[in-house]
């Protein structure tokens, strides 16, 4: 059974918001559109987006990490938003595991959004239907597109390549390998929702220098002489 | 469950006509290839072009929001004239036709051209067509032309070009594909951004180590493996300490320094000589290039005697003090560098930068050991300039990137010299894993373009006697009059800022207003928001724009503004020219300007309209070509006096830099049938061929010409032939800058030729140091640092940098207003609440804004996103838009000029060498807003109303759905 | 959670209606024959008016009320769907009960018992709508169902007492005692929920929400500065003092004052109790801390 999902690589996400607006532009004119914006040129514009990038500061100065955190529907294996829907508008596709909203059945009761712990569903205030990430279902099966462009718009846009897309049930897929080998994790595991989307943690690359590596026998000081009176490195024989 | 009613896959408008057109993005300076999907004639989707060499299919937040720019209600759609009888700045306009517009401009400009062409000034903002705007200015005959480089990052361009013959920016960059260790210093996100993001992503995935040195941890620094906070403006001290440590430990690439830099060249040390500090030249040596003689000396360590540099079988001594056969004392340049940094210990730098000495030593060691021990060797044979054949290309995998964070300080040029020297010490110039050039770089140090050299270069009805912008090689290149006073309105290429290769746009309005060095008549601003975020001292500059002489005439008599959108600046126009968007125009990313070259060869690209112009919008290029025709500028006029080019596309195809040069704006598909590359006669089908190829042309150099290009014989010969370079002499890295020394000698009165005015001698002699120096930012010396203890800096967020997108309905939802980010402890100590209103005040003014605590900023720095704050009503936002009510602009606190010196002289608040605007030097203090104060940002300005031709009224809803015309857009 | 007026009205109105209905049936059961049919007919009318008003209010909660009919389709999984079925079923039974009393058709007690069972089922459905939202710890507990039931019964009994003053004065004393008892019971069960909720520690934390193990994490941006559905639907946006005030109003209005008033001034008792229950319901939403709020804490 296929379960399509995104894997977000926090190790390389720079928080550029490319995924945010490219999601918006694809979907507003796509099968899921239009995604309305209220007061677009007013005091506090607020519109429907399927994907947002948030920023968190972790730790205290100077040991601070700035974490950019993209978030969209996680297409849970056990999506709490589906059974609560009174009309069947919220559903999970058997064929690929994508959780979708049937905009023609949705009555806009928002109950599904209450059931979701992640805050990734947004009621379109103009259409008054619930909306959410579709994994660009109207792109990924489009045979008019070249195979390598049959991906969600956010994935195609992402400049540092922080978004992977694929079948997390296929152990050999790029996403499964990334989850396995890079410590991919799910959000709020305690909610029991079994999110399909995963996040890859920050990784630290370090360089452990040993003092005895600083000076090598081909050190140019052997040709040029030591430049300063003090602060000379130890020469090899002294080590 | 019953089956879905709504088909999630079916195209929503199956019958709508759809098409895909290729062009180049212009949402910022990055210039990615895009494919624009149209449905029913409206933009449905803009995707990155996967075939494009620059972005390879990716696209950023701005690029993905192009639709909202195209259909923005802030679009200007009609030429407008200030309503007769209304005051400038009152934003009262009436529509006029393009015919009238051209008549007005032609009349005014032809009169000025015939009388005093320098009274016409053309300054452009985020312009990607300086090849054309520069040509227009030159042909017109005005010296008063520049783009925004002077307040952007000219220090980065000049500091590196004067050292290694290339720079970051579009001219070169870090080779992250092969680097192991990457340092990013200061904010540097906003050039070449998508490729850099992609490269950093790949670099990190490959296990590379990324260290960010920055007062703020945001942007790319967020994903760095290590963040090293630093006090703004102190990077030079850090770099000099690292250089010292690298030298002290012998971690420099000696072979590289000896052969490819001037480290071994002997410098005249006879203090009594007028040649003191200049390179000694061997009278009978090979000059290589008479225009730029290379007959230097080495002290050969093998034979222990002076020899011509690069003599086969010799090797220069790097340290020591020698006496030449004629008795002249001499030292190798590297010895002088060593002496310069001798006192620059890590402990010294710790006091200045706030970075622990141990950390400074550690990163120096990381650089040096990685460069030394992880050497890359590629099996690519190549021949160096002196004929030595190398079996392989080698490289040291330590890469750097920096941009405005280093540049926008008054000590930026020297800081960037230090960085370039450090990169050279590590042996990373144009080698794999280090810094790589992009065509047309490397160029000579300095490149050969020279401005006119004096007032005689400016004559009525005559093209300018030199390029409007260029590179100073000696003091005699300065563009000054007999008294040493500036000829240009911005005082570029004068003794105040001799190496100001990009001009000083930030001083144009102030200088013109003051009439110093002279008043002008007409100021034409293109795509530059000089009444808001593109200017320093915004509040005062806005007053200057409307200030009048005693006779009631405006101090700047006529202002023309060309922009696609209503900005804060359009309100100050006497004439407004509605520009097109990037989807409605032809453009060239030309090798004559700033192409989009890759490391492995030149690339240029074009824009081809995918949509017809909106309303009466006209691309600025067309305006220039039309005006040039009307004014009969020689390059635009046939021998018979007729008009040479019917429009801009025609100009691009047929213009050649010189008759028969075969070099034009575009390098692809030249020759009659498009069979030639780079050079060849005009091809009438050139545009079609670009269009067919996705709007770009890419040329791959053979591997043997892809590296070590400063000294690569094969590359040099090719570059000369292709017109990338005038000469083919080697480009030796200037560890020691003889060019800077020549200005110092002039200032010391030791040099014949142009001399600085007496008042400027000390200034020039101080800052034109041939070796890197660090000095505190100039404003520090004139600020009460006890009273203004903090540095205030800005950067632009990734979703908006280099863009005009305050009016973009999608992007403005991400950044609707801005906070001042203050280290939590600093803010608490000042009694300011997280999220509370506060004041930030410099000696120049004060701003009320919102505070946000942060753990990701060093305690002595406050910062904000720039250009989010807007003037009320501008960009067709509602008067109460959060951009104006909660957002703020830090520019009100930053002066375009330094305080008056003892003699009452006010210098530009700029780098004394290059004139780079010192945005990041400002010192501030912070305190909470008083209880009961109005909860709105300050200062506020009278709200702007839409002008004729703009959409009136603000929609409650925007529901963009391409192809569904007539819907509630 | 953001308390939506439509939902506050819906649950309090139908709750009172359901309680009133059950009270009437109990009256019929215990005092059969001594009460004239008009009491039941009028009472049923009140029940139907309350449920009707509740239903109307509920439509204001929907983005697409014209599709409301679809809500009956997912009864297998959705308590909301079940409520949508149970409410009209109950109203239908109530209507039949009233008609049976009016026409003297008989079988009123049978219909009444059926209606009461439907009423109880409706309490369960309504309660379960909230109790089934697992991520809302304040709600996901049997007490939620108990409280909807006890508070509905209490307000229904209170209303019955007030109504009996006009329609069957002889019942007032007994009904007042019943209302007192049920209100006291509701106070105990609701109080138990409050005490329980006060002990709750959120299962989800910023650390689990982000998967970052560090004690100090502070949000700096949430992706939009002008707010979003997520900042409107899940936050009440009121100060802590305001929330405390509402809780006080709820405790006094829904429980303490009715207990004092119901014996002597039953009409006032009901009015006060209804207002108190609106406050209680507002607080019910406001006290529910949705874990999604972890992602919506700051802008800059």
Description:
The complex is a heterotrimer of chains A (239), B (969) and C (300). Chain A has 6 helices and 11 strands. Chain A has 239 residues and is an alpha+beta fold. Chain A folds into 2 domains: 4-200, Alpha-Beta Plaits, CATH 3.30.70; 207-239, no CATH class. In chain A, a hairpin with a 6-residue loop joins strand 6 and strand 7 (99-101). In chain A, the strands form 5 sheets. Chain A has a 3-stranded mixed beta sheet. A two-stranded antiparallel sheet of chain A has the order 2-3. A two-stranded antiparallel ribbon of chain A has the order 4-5. By secondary structure, chain B is α/β, with parallel strands linked by helices. In chain B, the strands form 10 sheets. In chain B, strands 5-4-25-24-23-6-7 form a 7-stranded mixed beta sheet, with helices on one face. Chain B has a 6-stranded mixed β-barrel with strand order 29-33-30-32-31-34. In chain B, a hairpin with a 2-residue loop joins strand 2 (33-39) and strand 3. The model of chain B has no long low-confidence stretch (mean pLDDT 96). Chain C has one domain: Formate dehydrogenase/DMSO reductase fold (Up-down Bundle). Chain C is built from 10 helices and 1 strand. Chain C has helices spanning 5-30, 37-59, 79-103, 108-131, 142-167, 172-199, 206-210, 229-233, 240-261, 266-286, and one strand at 217-221. The model of chain C has no long low-confidence stretch (mean pLDDT 95). Chains in contact: A-B, A-C, B-C. Chains A and C meet through strand 4, strand 5 and helix 2 of A and helix 3, helix 7, strand 1 and helix 8 of C.
Task: Tell me briefly what this model is.
The complex is a heterotrimer of chains A (239), B (969) and C (300). Chain A is built from six helices and eleven strands. The mean pLDDT of chain A is 94.
Instruction: Report on the biggest sheet of chain A.
Output: 3 strands, mixed
- Average predicted confidence as pLDDT of chain A: 94
Contiguous helical run count of chain A? 6
Instruction: Indicate the proportion of strand residues of chain A.
Output: 15-25%
Features:
heterotrimer, A: 239 residues, alpha+beta, Alpha-Beta Plaits, 2 domains, two-stranded antiparallel ribbon, 11 strands, C: 300 residues, mainly alpha, Formate dehydrogenase/DMSO reductase fold, 2% strand
């Amino acid at each position: 059974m296929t379960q399509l999902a995104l894997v977000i690589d926090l190790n390389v996400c720079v928080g550029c918001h490319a995924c945010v607006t490219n999601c918006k532009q694809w979907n507003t004119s796509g099968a899921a559109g239009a995604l309305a914006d209220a007061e677009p040129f007013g005091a506090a514009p607020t519109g429907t987006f399927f994907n947002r990038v948030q920023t968190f500061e972790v730790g205290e100065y100077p040991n601070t990490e700035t974490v950019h955190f993209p978030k969209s529907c996680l297409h849970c294996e056990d999506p709490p938003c589906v059974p609560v829907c009174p009309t069947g508008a919220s559903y999970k596709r058997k064929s690929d595991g994508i959780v979708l909203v049937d905009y023609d059945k949705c009555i806009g009761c928002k109950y599904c959004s209450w059931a979701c712990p992640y805050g990734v569903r947004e009621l379109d205030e103009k259409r008054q239907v619930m909306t959410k990430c579709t994994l660009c279902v109207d792109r990924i099966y489009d045979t008019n597109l070249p195979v390598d462009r049959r991906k969600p718009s956010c994935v195609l846009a992402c400049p540092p390549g922080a978004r992977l897309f694929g079948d997390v049930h296929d152990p050999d897929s790029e996403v499964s390998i990334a989850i396995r080998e890079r410590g991919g994790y799910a959000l709020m595991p305690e909610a029991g929702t079994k999110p399909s989307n995963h996040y890859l943690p920050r990784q630290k690359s370090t360089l452990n220098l040993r003092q005895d590596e600083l000076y090598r026998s081909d050190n140019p000081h052997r040709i040029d002489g030591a430049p300063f009176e003090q602060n000379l490195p130890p020469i090899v024989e002294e080590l | 469950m019953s089956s879905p009613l709504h088909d999630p896959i079916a195209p929503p408008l199956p019958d709508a006509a759809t098409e895909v057109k290729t062009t180049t993005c212009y949402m910022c300076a990055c210039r990615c290839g895009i494919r624009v999907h149209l449905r029913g004639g409206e933009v449905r989707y803009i995707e990155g072009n996967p075939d494009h060499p620059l972005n390879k299919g990716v696209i950023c937040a701005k690029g993905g929001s192009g639709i909202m720019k195209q259909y923005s209600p802030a679009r200007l759609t009609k030429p407008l004239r200030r309503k007769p009888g209304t005051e400038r700045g009152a934003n009262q306009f009436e529509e006029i036709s393009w015919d009238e517009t051209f008549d007005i401009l032609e009349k005014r400009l032809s009169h000025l051209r015939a009388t005093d062409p320098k009274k016409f000034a053309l300054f452009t903002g985020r312009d990607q067509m300086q090849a054309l705007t520069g040509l227009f200015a030159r042909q017109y005959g005005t010296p008063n032309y520049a783009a925004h480089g002077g307040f952007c990052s000219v220090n980065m361009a000049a500091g590196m070009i004067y050292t290694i013959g290339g720079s970051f920016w579009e001219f070169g960059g870090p080779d992250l594909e092969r680097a192991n260790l990457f340092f990013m210093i200061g904010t540097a996100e906003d050039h070449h951004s998508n490729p850099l993001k992609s490269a950093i992503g790949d670099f990190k995935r490959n296990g590379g180590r990324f260290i960010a040195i920055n007062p703020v941890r945001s942007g790319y620094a967020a994903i760095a493996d290590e963040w090293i906070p630093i006090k703004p403006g102190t990077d030079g001290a850090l770099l000099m300490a690292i250089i010292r440590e690298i030298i002290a430990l012998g971690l420099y690439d000696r072979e590289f320094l000896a052969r490819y830099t001037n480290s071994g060249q002997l410098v005249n040390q006879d203090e009594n000589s007028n040649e003191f500090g200049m390179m000694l030249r061997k009278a009978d040596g090979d000059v290589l290039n008479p225009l730029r003689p290379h007959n230097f000396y080495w002290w050969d360590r093998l034979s222990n005697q002076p020899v011509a540099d690069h003599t086969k079988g010799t090797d220069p001594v790097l340290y020591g003090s020698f006496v030449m056969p004629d008795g002249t004392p001499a030292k190798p340049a590297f010895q002088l560098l060593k002496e310069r940094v001798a006192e620059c210990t890590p402990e010294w730098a710790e006091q200045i930068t706030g970075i622990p000495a141990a950390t400074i030593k550690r990163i120096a060691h990381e650089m040096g050991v990685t460069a030394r021990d992880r050497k890359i060797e590629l099996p690519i044979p190549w021949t160096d300039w002196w004929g030595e054949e190398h079996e392989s290309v080698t490289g040291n995998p330590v890469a750097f990137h920096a941009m405005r964070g280093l540049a926008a300080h008054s000590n930026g040029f020297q800081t960037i010299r230090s960085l370039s020297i450090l990169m050279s010490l590590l042996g990373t110039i144009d080698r794999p894993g280090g810094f790589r050039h992009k065509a047309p770089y490397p160029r000579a140090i300095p490149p050969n373009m020279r401005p006119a050299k004096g007032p005689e270069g400016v004559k009525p009805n005559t093209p300018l006697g030199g390029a409007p912008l260029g590179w100073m090689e000696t003091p005699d290149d300065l563009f000054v009059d007999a008294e040493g006073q500036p000829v240009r309105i911005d005082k570029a290429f004068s003794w105040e800022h001799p190496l100001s290769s990009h001009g000083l746009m930030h001083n144009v309005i102030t200088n013109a207003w003051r009439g110093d060095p002279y008043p002008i008549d007409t100021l034409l601003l293109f795509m530059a928001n000089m009444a808001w975020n593109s200017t320093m001292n915004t509040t005062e500059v806005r007053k200057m724009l409307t200030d009048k002489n005693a006779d009631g005439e405006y101090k700047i008599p006529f202002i023309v503004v060309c922009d696609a959108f209503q900005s804060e600046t359009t309100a100050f126009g006497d004439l407004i020219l509605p520009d097109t968007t990037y989807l409605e125009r032809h453009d060239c990313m030309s090798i004559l300007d700033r192409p989009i070259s890759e490391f492995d060869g030149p690339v240029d690209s074009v824009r081809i309209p995918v949509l017809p112009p909106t309303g009466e919008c006209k691309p600025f290029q067309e305006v220039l070509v039309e005006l040039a025709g009307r004014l009969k500028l020689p390059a635009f006029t046939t021998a018979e006096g007729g008009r040479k080019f019917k429009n801009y596309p025609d100009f691009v195809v047929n213009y050649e830099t010189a008759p028969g040069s075969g070099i034009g704006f575009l390098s692809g598909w030249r020759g009659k049938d498009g069979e030639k590359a780079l050079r060849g006669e005009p091809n009438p089908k050139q545009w079609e061929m670009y269009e067919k190829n996705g709007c770009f042309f890419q040329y791959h150099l053979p591997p043997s010409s892809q590296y070590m290009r400063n000294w690569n014989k094969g590359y040099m010969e090719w570059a000369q032939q292709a017109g990338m370079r005038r000469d083919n002499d080697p480009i030796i890295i200037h560890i020691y800058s003889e060019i800077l020394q020549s200005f110092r000698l002039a200032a010391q009165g030791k040099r014949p030729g142009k001399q600085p005015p007496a008042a400027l001698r000390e200034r020039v002699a101080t800052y034109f140091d041939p070796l890197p120096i660090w000095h505190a930012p100039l404003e520090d010396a004139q600020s009460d640092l006890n009273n203004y203890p903090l540095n205030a800096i800005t950067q632009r967020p990734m979703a908006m940098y280099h863009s005009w997108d305050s009016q973009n309905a999608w992007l403005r939802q991400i950044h609707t207003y801005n906070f001042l980010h203050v280290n939590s402890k600093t803010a608490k100590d000042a009694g300011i609440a997280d999220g509370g209103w506060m004041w930030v005040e410099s000696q120049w003014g004060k701003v009320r804004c919102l505070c946000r605590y942060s753990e990701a900023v060093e305690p002595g720095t406050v910062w904000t996103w720039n250009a989010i704050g807007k003037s009320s009503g501008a960009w067709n936002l509602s008067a109460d838009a959060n951009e104006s009510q909660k957002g703020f602009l830090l520019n009100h606190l930053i002066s375009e000029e330094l305080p008056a010196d003892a003699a009452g002289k006010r210098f530009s608040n700029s780098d004394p060498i290059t004139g780079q605007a010192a945005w990041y030097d400002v010192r501030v203090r912070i305190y909470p807003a008083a209880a009961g104060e109005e909860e709105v940002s300050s200062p506020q300005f009278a709200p702007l109303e839409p002008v004729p031709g703009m959409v009136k009224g603000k929609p409650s809803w925007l529901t963009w759905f391409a192809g569904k015309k007539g819907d509630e857009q | 959670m953001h308390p939506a007026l439509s939902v506050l009205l819906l649950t309090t109105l139908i709750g009172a209606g359901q309680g009133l209905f059950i009270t009437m049936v109990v009256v019929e059961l215990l005092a059969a024959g001594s009460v004239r049919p008009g009491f039941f007919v009028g009472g049923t009318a009140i029940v139907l008016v309350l449920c009707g008003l509740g239903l109307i209010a509920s439509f204001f909660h929907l983005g697409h009320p014209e599709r409301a009919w679809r809500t009956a389709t997912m009864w297998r999984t959705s308590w909301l769907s079940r409520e949508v079925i149970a409410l009209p079923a109950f109203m239908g039974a109530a209507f039949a009960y009233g008609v049976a009393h009016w026409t003297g058709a008989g079988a009123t007690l049978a219909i009444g018992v059926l209606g009461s069972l439907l009423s109880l089922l409706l309490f369960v459905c309504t309660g379960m709508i909230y109790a089934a939202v697992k991520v809302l710890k304040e709600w996901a507990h049997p007490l939620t169902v108990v409280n909807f039931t006890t508070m509905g019964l209490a307000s229904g009994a209170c209303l019955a007492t007030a109504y009996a003053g006009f329609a069957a004065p002889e019942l007032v004393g007994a009904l007042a005692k019943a209302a007192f008892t049920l209100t006291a019971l509701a106070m105990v069960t609701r109080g138990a929920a409050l005490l329980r909720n006060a002990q709750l520690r959120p299962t989800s934390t910023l650390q689990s929400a982000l998967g970052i193990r560090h004690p100090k994490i502070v949000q700096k941006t949430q992706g939009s500065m002008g707010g979003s559905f997520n900042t409107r639907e899940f936050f009440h946006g009121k100060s802590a003092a305001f929330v405390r005030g509402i809780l006080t109003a709820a405790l006094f209005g829904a429980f303490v004052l009715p207990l004092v008033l119901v014996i002597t001034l039953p009409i006032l008792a009901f009015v006060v109790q209804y207002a108190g229950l609106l406050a209680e319901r507002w607080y019910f939403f406001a006290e529910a801390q949705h874990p999604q709020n972890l992602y919506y804490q700051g802008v800059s």
